[in-house]
Amino acid sequence: MKVVDTTQINSFAPIAAQTNFVQPSEEAVFILTSGQLQDLITQAIQKAIQPLQDEFMELRATVARQEEKIAALETTEVKDVDRICLDIAYDRQRLAKLESSPSTTAPPAQPRGEKTIARIAKIDEVLKSRGATTLKEMGRILKISSKEMNRLLAKLDMRRYELHYRPGDNREKVLRLKVQIRP
After folding, report:
1. Parallel, antiparallel, or unpaired: how do β-strands 169-177 and 161-166 relate?
2. pTM given for the model
3. What angle (nearest 5°) sits at the alpha carbon of residue 157, between those of residues 156 and 160?
4. Are residues 172 and 143 in the same domain?
5. CA dihedral 28, 30, 34, 37 (to 10 degrees)
């Protein structure tokens, strides 16, 4: 039987015994107090955090500017919507007027006929001789109906005539010549 050297098999032997390894010594290289250590850690953290804080402040300023722009745009949008709605409402009113009453436009000016010219001359003659006269009386003198009298009034040059209610009686209208001032 052979004898086996057990020193070579034992792997649990101390490392120093297996190789010529030297363990480092536990000597202090730096000596710091707890306050100094705390200051060093605080400074290191500040250096690491400062770029992040700067970026955060820039982002906060950017967000504030964008919020101001959004508020300005919303205000402008509300004003534009109100203006457009008002324009649409006015346009609808104009269209409704145009669609509902095409006959309410003024008829084109019609040339005066011989009868109309003769009647206007007669009105001048009556007003110069009698003075102010009611429309009813003027219709009797001209021998025309009140409807025809109203049409004739529409053709008179109102720069020369005055039409007003009779004093004390707002039911009768009176026609008279305006006073002419001559230099």
Report:
1. antiparallel
2. 0.39
3. 115
4. yes
5. -140
Higher pLDDT, 43 or 3: 43
Q: What is the domain-level CATH number for residue 126?
A: 1.10.10.10
Dist. CA 88–CA 82, nearest whole Å: 10
Regarding whether 158 and 132 lie in a shared domain, the answer is yes
pLDDT digits (tens, 9 = 90+) for 100-118: 765 544 544 555 788 899 9
Residue with tokens 């009386």, as numbered in its chain: 137
CB burial string 77-116: b at 16+ within 10 A, e below = eeeeeeeeeeeeeeeeeeeeeeeeeeeeeeeeeeeeeeeb
Q: Which of 167, 168, 164, 169 is nearest to 178 (CA)?
A: 164
Q: Is 146 part of a structural domain of the chain?
A: yes
% of the chain beyond a pLDDT of 90: 32
Residue 19: strand, helix, or coil: coil
Is 163 in contact with 175 (CB distance < 8 Å)? yes
